[in-house]
Each structure stands twice: as C-alpha cells, then as structure tokens.
Amino acid sequence: MRVIAGMCRGKRLKSVKGLSTRPTADRVKEAVFNVLGSRIIEAKVLDLFGGTGNIGIEALSRGAKFVYFVEKDRKAVQIIKENVTWCNFNEKVEIYPVDCFKALKILKEKNIKFNLVYLDPPYKLLIIDDLLEEIAKTDLLDVNGIIIAETAKNTELLSNFDHLNKVREDHYGDTKITYYQRN
Q1: Residue 63 burial (CB count, 10 A)
Q2: Stretch 12-36: mean pLDDT, rounded?
C-alpha cells in the first residue's frame, strides 16, 4: 500500500497486521481520486473507518486541506498516527477513536461541513444505508460535497437518501464505489 500521487507520492504506508482491516486497493484508490480530480484541492475530508489512513493520507498528499479520521479499533488508530507522522501531516488531521455514529454526532455538534466523505465500513457490517441516512440527516456535507461509499460489488444501495442522490457507480473486481451528491 502506497501513496499514489502528490507530495508523498511513492511513500509506503504501514498496515494493520491480521484481517481486522481491509485497505482500499491502490487501483481502486487511484480510480476514485481520478474521478475527484481537482475537487480534492483544499477539501475538508471525513474518512470514516480510517483503517490505515490510506484514503485520508492520499487526499492530503493531493492537496486536501484537512482530514478527520474516524476509527474505533485501537491498533488501527495507532497505524493511522504512524502513517500520518511518516507523511508529515500531523497538523492537518484529527482522529476520533470512536464508533462512526458517535463521531457523526460529535462532528455535527462542532458544525463541520465536509467537501468529501469516504465510507468504507467492513463489508460484513451492512450499515452503509444507515450511515448514508445519518449523514444526510446530520447535514455534514457541504453544498457541493460528495460522498463516496465503498462496498462489496453485490451490495445494493438506494438511489436517494433525504437530499442525497446517487450520481455514479463504478465496479472494480469485488469492489463497488458509489458516489452521492446533495440535490
């Protein structure tokens, strides 16, 4: 697992030993960031289920302004911290070592609006619909913001969640990437 582009291009990131995390494959990550293009520059990013920090660090390397990581697994939080330090992004991140729904509540109370929200829960949890609904309800997405949901290829997602509309869906092997925007 490596940073693909930007100021940290080529840096190898640590991963969590064992099967507790499933980092986004480099080819999927590259495809997602190609779709985002310049939208990532100066973006405020929420990386739910941060895992190794792979997605958020890629965003920072490509010019994102700030990344909020949410990850409840203590080993993964430590790996995120190490990877963030390795890439010299300590001043550009906040890490919330709590459950994703609790984190959404905290971020709502702080009135933070995100340009990009990346959701990559463990496929077996089957909570992606609940997360999308909660994000729509808490109004965390900026007016022109985008949500990217990474799921197993056979996961069916609704087209709309409150004021969020599905705008794109791509498949990469066993992975499906679904994009939502505010309507």
Answers
A1: 14
A2: 82
CATH number at residue 118: 3.40.50.150
Helix, strand, coil shares of the chain as percentages rounded to 5?
A: 35, 30, 35
Domain holding 169, by residue range, is 26-145+155-182
Tell me if 14 is assigned to some domain. Answer: no
Q: Is residue 15 part of a domain?
A: no
Q: How many CB atoms lie within 10 A of CB 6?
A: 18
**What is the value of pTM for the model shown?**
0.93
Confidence of residue 61 (pLDDT cuts 50, 70, 90): very high
The rounded distance, in Å, linking the Cα atoms of 183 and 170 is: 20
Alpha-carbon dihedral sign for residues 81, 37, 150, 130: positive
Beta strands in 111-161 (DSSP E): 114-119, 141-152, 160-161
